[in-house]
Design brief:
Radius of gyration: 25 Å
Strand order of the largest sheet: 3-2-1-10-9-8-7-6-5-4
Shape: globular
Oligomer: single chain
Number of strands: 10
Order of helices and strands: HEEEHHEEEEEEE
Distance between the termini: 74 Å
CATH architecture: Clam
Helix content: 25-40%
Mean pLDDT: 80
Largest sheet: 10 strands, antiparallel
């Protein structure tokens, strides 16, 4: 009987040790999976940049204030020798509103200038998130500010904290089949967290597998401004040309 109890005791100890070992190794397994997904994302972004350099496309920007559309502008986009996106407006310029008197007209123009300046700052900020910089991705990983979790749709979700600013967040859904980005969500701000800006971007793929932002919606809640950017009509014009992917 004692021998039997002794055997049971060792069996229980063995199971306990196995469970303990599994618990201890779980963080290492999660870390390895995280590193794999981050590395796959960085490689995918690098390869995608090279593919997108050869394209020309049409960018449509729709600006709304308090739910009312204020402008709709189309631009032809392509990459220049310096690797930056060059844009040429191809839609008719917006017609000026009817005159409302000198004083009121000046107030309206001032508000338009302020909104234009605000939107310029907001768009420049968002460009720091979409497409995400491989350098920022690596910095977030090194700082332990990225988490990876599976989804039910055959993708993997990567959450980044303090990606550009303290308190911001960037969420990327990564297609596991080809490590391409499916969609991106950003929550950030300009001057203070009260001046919040959100962005939701949906990606699509071209025939050669190049991944691009098909539709992006930027919302500045405090200012009641919404900006929708749609990229379409992609066509190859300069194989292997310099540049980087657009918003």
């Amino acid at each position: 009987m004692n021998q039997e109890n002794h055997n049971i005791s060792w069996l229980v100890r063995g199971r306990f040790l196995c469970m303990l070992l599994a618990v201890l190794l779980l963080p290492l397994a999660k870390l390895a999976a995280q590193q794999d997904k981050v590395a796959a994302l960085k490689q995918s972004l690098s390869e995608n940049q090279k593919r997108l350099r050869q394209y020309q496309w049409v960018e449509t920007t729709i600006v709304s204030l308090k739910g009312e559309e204020k402008s709709r502008i189309q631009k032809q986009c392509s990459y220049g020798p310096d690797g930056k996106v060059q844009k040429i407006q191809i839609s008719a310029p917006p017609q000026p509103p009817p005159s409302k008197g000198r004083v009121k007209g000046k107030i309206v123009e001032k508000k338009k200038a302020e909104m234009s300046d605000y939107m310029k700052q907001a768009v420049e900020l968002v460009h720091q998130y979409v497409p995400p910089s491989p350098q920022n991705i690596q910095s977030a990983k090194d700082a332990g500010k990225v988490s990876v979790s599976p989804t039910t749709s055959g993708s993997s979700r990567l959450d980044f904290k303090d990606f550009v600013k303290a308190g911001d967040s960037l969420t990327i859904n990564l297609n596991l089949a080809n490590n391409s980005i499916q969609d991106v969500k950003v929550a950030t701000y300009l001057e203070s967290p009260k001046d919040s800006i959100t962005l939701e971007a949906r990606f699509a793929s071209l025939n050669d597998g190049a991944n691009y932002v098909a539709n992006a919606v930027l919302v500045a809640t405090e200012k009641k401004i919404q900006v929708v950017v749609q990229n379409s009509d992609y066509r190859i014009i300069a194989p292997g040309g310099p540049g980087a992917p657009p918003l």
